[in-house]
TrEMBL record:
Residues of the Serine aminopeptidase S33 domain: 3-196
Highest classification ranks of the organism: Eukaryota, Viridiplantae, Streptophyta, Embryophyta, Tracheophyta
PANTHER family: PHOSPHOLIPASE-RELATED
Domain of life: Eukaryota
Pfam families: Hydrolase_4
SUPFAM superfamilies, A to Z: alpha/beta-Hydrolases
The protein's name in its UniProt record: Serine aminopeptidase S33 domain-containing protein
Length: 221
């Protein structure tokens, strides 16, 4: 069913399974492997690492969903009501939601183009899905110290979808000895799709530089 996630770990297990199948192919066995996750994908990447701490050579996390920004979460009382209702109506789209394109895309022309994205889910979250995402982010928030792989964390300072403060906390608390945090002034949530071109190019350049540096170290060792 579109937009329904009964258990977040299933997404994580799918990533791990797909990675394992790709890594089994002879041409990929000796290559470095890096996790990449943006927003919700950042949560998937972190959970995959926490399940298999030594499987990857590093991770790039772009505005990772370690915590949903407080402004995007319904008030506490409404959240408790929705938790109760979800037991009986898990598929219902009852979760209040702000305009994500407006919150995530700073460039107005790119924001307008989101209406034509036919594969994006644009409706309200289903109850079960929203609560599973909330549960997952709370879980990750309490496991930041267990993150141990090389990290590149990228986040827009003006992001109101996922909380930049938690990316700062991840950078501070992660046990990784190799970790880097880059915050982009005035940037919104979608730093790779929704920013002016010069900002997108800057973010891509930071990613490529980090990958080149770490790949060269691994391939040369």
């Amino acid at each position: 069913m579109e937009g329904r996630c009964r258990r977040f770990d299933r997404l994580v297990d799918d990533v791990i399974e797909h990675y394992s199948k790709v890594k089994e192919q002879p041409e990929f066995r000796t290559l470095p492997t890096f996790l990449f996750g943006q927003s919700l994908g950042g949560a998937v990447a972190l959970k995959a690492h926490l399940k298999q701490p030594s499987a990857w050579n590093g991770a790039i996390l772009v505005a990772p969903m370690c915590k949903i920004a407080d402004d995007m979460v319904p008030p506490w009382l409404l959240t408790q009501i929705l938790i109760g209702v979800a037991k009986f109506l898990p598929k219902q789209k009852l979760v209040p939601q702000k305009n994500l394109a407006e919150a995530a895309f700073r460039d107005l022309k790119k924001r307008e183009m989101t209406a034509y994205n036919v594969i994006a889910y644009k409706d309200k979250p289903r109850l079960e899905t929203a609560l599973e995402m909330l549960r997952t982010t709370e879980e990750i928030e309490h496991q930041l110290e267990e993150v141990s792989l090389p990290l590149l964390i990228l986040h827009g300072e003006a992001d109101i979808v996922t909380d930049p403060a938690v990316s700062k906390a991840l950078h501070e608390k992660a046990s990784s000895s190799d970790k880097k945090l880059i915050l982009y002034m005035d940037a919104y949530h979608s730093v790779l799709e929704g920013e002016p071109d010069e900002m997108i190019i800057r973010v891509l350049s930071d990613i490529i530089s980090w990958l080149n540096e770490h790949s060269e170290k691994l391939m040369g060792s």
